[in-house]
Task: structure prediction
Amino acid sequence: MEIHDAQREVRTVYRGGFYGQVVSAVLWLTAAALGTWHTPRAAILTLVLGGFFIFPLTMLLLRISGRRAVLSPANSLRYLAMQVAFTLPLSLPLVGAAAVARLNWFFPAFMIVLGAHYLPFTFLYGMRLFSVLAGLLVAGGLACGLYLGESFSVGAWFAAGVLLLFAVIGLGLVHSEERKSPPAAKVTVGDGRSA
Result:
């Protein structure tokens, strides 16, 4: 499978990142609300523990929508998708260290790590949109940490809004691509199997 075909399959199967970003946005909104109206501890636990359910919930939503939820075995980018998925949990100690130094740096630090996590999606999906998303999250995290450090939750509200906006934009781009050129039909090999 050529790289551009593999990227197109990633875009098509995962709907331009729509479901995953919607799940993430809801999680960030929940954490923002808890941080604003309840306690920072509740917000932190919600985002950290809830983050482990983003992938399973994304797969569930894809299946509920009636769409295929996995990439074909011929798509070598599935390995990149798995590797990128592990960057966030492996970065949590860094986020924790920032929060220990200053509690209000929790969300800004997480935003920077999240932005860095989205940068490889640019290649994975073949969509420059993810570079913009990564840049906004990193820049937003820096701005919140440096200039809005008195507010615990402002970064979470910002991240949730950005994730939701880019989920809709990504889905729109995939729909537009599908209207212009529908996905290629499956090729059947001599023994009746799909290739």
The first helix runs from residue 3 to 13.
